[in-house]
Amino acid sequence: MTFDQYAAAVPFYDLWHEDGHVPEVREKLPPLVRGDVLEIGAGTGLITELIAAATEGEIFALEPSLGMRSVLLSRLAGRPDLLGRVTVLPYGALDVDLDEPVDMVVMIAVLYAIEDRAKLWETLARQLVPGGRLVFNYTERPMPTPSEPARMAAYQVGRHTYEIWGRTHAVEGERVSASFTYRIRHGDAVISEDVVESVTYRPSAATLRAELTAAGFAPDEAPEGLQAWRLAK
């Protein structure tokens, strides 16, 4: 069995993301969506449903985490209208190889997780038709600094409180090592707790521009918080 590093986060995922970037993406992404779409890092399917509402094309929802993918498939099971045009792919972003190229690649809340971006851009370019569009969310922010654990969010679900704690351990160039604690409380008692070690990579806007240009992409218009690039060749 393959180790699923995201399994501990699954019960917290929709609570956290609906309270974070998803409402903004839900507002800004649909006007950019066209044709057949490859979604990188579909998670539990929050953005997959959004894409499906914005296009009548075929959707390839790529998600390597078994836990996340299970929720995504359960979500699709309640949507018979989507079962015929959403294919769930159990791959990582660097491993995808579609049968035919698509019109668009969407990548939400995934960029920071990938170290080998040169291979990422090369891989995604191969999945696009000439002139196809790559869209991802990105906002340039100051790098974090090492910190003590801090509660990032808490959600009440019935009699239980779902808490997410985070701590930055070290920052070396783009590389940020951190840990996240996913804790469920019943009153003052902790009934579940998982700690997940995390490494992310945070490029500057200038670095992204140079990488994408070198990979054959040209900048396109997008609302604040999203980046859009067209495959120029």
UniProtKB/TrEMBL annotation:
An annotated GO BP: methylation
GO MF annotation: an example: methyltransferase activity
One Pfam entry name: Methyltransf_12
UniProt keywords, alphabetically: Methyltransferase, Transferase
Methyltransferase type domain segment(s): 38-134
InterPro entries linked: Methyltransf_12 (IPR013217), SAM-dependent_MTases_sf (IPR029063)
Name this protein carries in UniProt: Class I SAM-dependent methyltransferase
